[in-house]
Write a structure and sequence with these properties.
With 347 residues, the protein is α+β, with helices and mostly antiparallel strands. The chain is 23% helix and 32% strand. The radius of gyration is 23 Å and the shape is globular.
Length: 347
Amino acid sequence: MFLRNHWYVAASAEDIGRKPVRRVLLGEPVALFRSEAGPAVAFEDRCPHRHLPLSMGRLDGDTLQCHYHGLRFGIDGRCVRIPGQDQIPPNAGVKAYPVVERYKWLWIWMGDPALADPTNITDFHWLDDPSWGAKGSYLHVKANWQLVVDNLLDLTHLAFVHETTIGNSALAEHATVKVTRAPNNVVVTRWIIDQDPPPTFKKVGGFKGNVDRWQIIDFAPPAFLRLDVGATPTGTGAPPGTRVNGIKMRNLNPITPETETTSHYFWAQAHDFDVKNPDTTNKIFEQIETAFLEDVEVFSAQQRNLDLIPTPSQLDINADTGVIQARRILARLYEDEQAALHVTAAE
């Protein structure tokens, strides 16, 4: 189940240059590169002649030459040259995709190009806001994208998967949780009051006693999760909004489906304290990266089981409230998109 009329992250902006890069997105092969002027280009990574990936070819100015028989394609996807013949068939082009560079990522629109409005790109400004320190990375996940979304919407797993970094038992046993839903949004708010901070918070926050800790998870479809997390010394007023003498961070997660069983997991961690100190940024990043690599092991193991039994019966518990609401939104959006496609096809 892929929602196509949405913006997705295709790559980190710094990873795309003049050498074509292949990436499979929503089950479609895509070639990514930069034009001579600098803007990124994305089009179907498949020569219409004999289907070789165009990313295996080379750039000559703003034309990409197929490695197999030398057909050349402009940045709009149209074939501009076929060696040995003057006439170019009208179907000799490849699909081009809208691309926007924002928040240090390249965003791609895989659906109807007429609907590609850049103002609808989900806000991840913390990644390039100078008032925040931030660092991001990429993980290739051998699991369905919805498993990653589920993981980020139910953070009780931190108590068991990440007990050496960002988790402890208080997350599961002493949390007050509220779930709110809008038509296309789910927010899960979790407060852990007057409890021991987890190891990572002790390292980066220097806490000596108990803290009031918050986790506010903001889900936007198809697979964007922005986490407001932090802690202050207990009793200093964090729940009503006075967040002082502690740490505030943002965990940023745009997930892009690759196939039904693999995903591109882009993520970043931002902090609003000691923002000009790269050592602080790296220390926080390394702690979160350790936790995320532990998550990847979980996703992959889940997918291996699902490969054996694709639709097993499933037990839901109280902690799944946010997950269930998000899946309902995704199911509705998919049904709406498919219905619109049927109407268009009928016309």
